[in-house]
Amino acid sequence: MFIGIHANTLLCAIWRNDLLKHIVSLLLLLMAVIGFYIYKFDLPTDSTSWGEFGSFSGGTAAVLIALYGVIYGIFQHRAGSVKSYTIEDHIQLMKTYRSAHSGGYTNKGYDFIDWIWKCVVSQLTRNGDPTIKDVKDNSSLSEMAQWKRSLQKMDKKLVSDFVNEMSQAEAKLAWLYVLVEEIPTYYKEPLKEKFEKLSLSEAESSMFTALASA
What we know:
Layout: H1 2-15, H2 18-41, H3 47-83, H4 87-95, H5 109-125, H6 132-137, H7 145-153, H8 159-165, H9 168-179, H10 188-195, H11 202-212
Helix pairs in contact: 2-3, 5-9, 5-11, 9-10
């Protein structure tokens, strides 16, 4: 029993090796090709049928293996893209944030977002309750395009921790983008929880209420 447990542990450890997984997958693929040929044409019995078997198996397997490689490459690329952007990358962006009108706030992204947020609230509430179109057309928000892209690139598994790290102005701006569907929907739940704990000015409260019911 002791040997059996350790053998099982060893097999699990070996299976976690990606190379072995691909070898096993390719062997199963080859077996499937052979099985299909035998099912369709029966077992080879002479040199001619063996030749046909080899030609069919080799050609079909080559195509399937090439397709397997392409699919694997696509998934690896996507996985690499998702994992390549972290909370630390976002913080670095904010430390070096630049925009056309950042002026004295250059290299001080968190100060800049505090300032731009006040401008956005003032502009959106100047003529009464704002609409979703007002938000999407707001010129000040265009200054935060890099910041919004940073949210869109963030690894989905890090979103909850990322939201917890947001400053008040960032959380308010992110919630604004949630209401107008400008950032992924998986931000909604963690942001809602954080947003409910924020203190809002009268103008901010009025703006968010109007957009939530828009």
